[in-house]
Design brief:
The protein is elongated. It is 2% helix and 48% strand. By secondary structure, it is mostly beta strands. The strands form 4 sheets. Strands 2, 4, 5, 8, 10 and 11 form a 6-stranded mixed sheet that branches. A 5-stranded antiparallel sheet has the order 1-3-9-6-7, with no helix packed on it. Strand 4 and strand 5 form a beta hairpin.
Length: 192
């Protein structure tokens, strides 16, 4: 029957906005023959509450995808040459730096979606519409598509120096004041 490429997109179920987040693309050959040829790899994070794409810088891809120009931001699409023996799986760990906020200015969820297929899918995908499976012509050459949902968590502000969080500001407790390092003496310190 030939080569048959598969795609799995896995990773953390929860990531903090403003921090890094890891996921893994696994490209496998479930066919009886080796695969040796060009493929396109497309990946993007679709913001569930707005439908827009989340822009994020790529910190690392290990091992590299092997594209002529290795992607440096999400969403991305690139072409690479791939060799896979029957039953072989190649895993690529991708680390992205998430923005402090999503386009909707709040935490929520994203669908991290990836697609592999013939290099022509790069032209067909337009603005990298990775949240919907591509239309294939059937057979072993149709594009493969996989998504997983990530909950984006807004980190809580941390207060140091014996301060407490009040209405979004770090303040000293009643009877103390801020000396630049910690709460001491009398009075309430101004917000930091």
């Amino acid at each position: 029957t030939g080569a048959f490429l598969t795609l799995k997109n896995t990773g953390k179920l929860k990531c903090d906005l403003g921090r890094t987040c890891d996921f893994e693309l696994s490209i496998g050959n479930e066919g009886e023959n080796a695969f040796n040829g060009p493929i396109a790899v497309v990946n993007g994070m679709v913001i569930n509450n707005s439908g827009g794409l989340l822009d994020a810088n790529i910190v690392s891809i290990s091992p590299p995808l092997g594209c002529a120009v290795e992607p440096v931001e999400m969403p991305f699409g690139c072409a690479t040459d791939l060799e896979l023996a029957p039953g072989e799986v190649r895993r690529h760990k991708i680390t992205v730096a998430l923005p402090e906020k999503t386009g909707s200015d709040r935490a929520g969820t994203v669908r991290n979606c990836a697609m592999i297929g013939e290099p022509g899918i790069l032209e067909q995908s337009g603005r990298l519409q990775t949240d919907r499976p591509p239309v294939g012509d059937g057979g072993d050459s149709r594009p493969q598509h996989d998504c997983h949902t990530i909950e984006l968590v807004q980190r809580k502000k941390q207060c140091g120096g014996q301060r407490v969080l009040v209405n979004g500001n770090c303040v000293c407790t009643t009877g103390k004041r801020w000396n630049g390092r910690r709460c001491v003496g009398k009075g309430i310190a101004p917000p930091a």
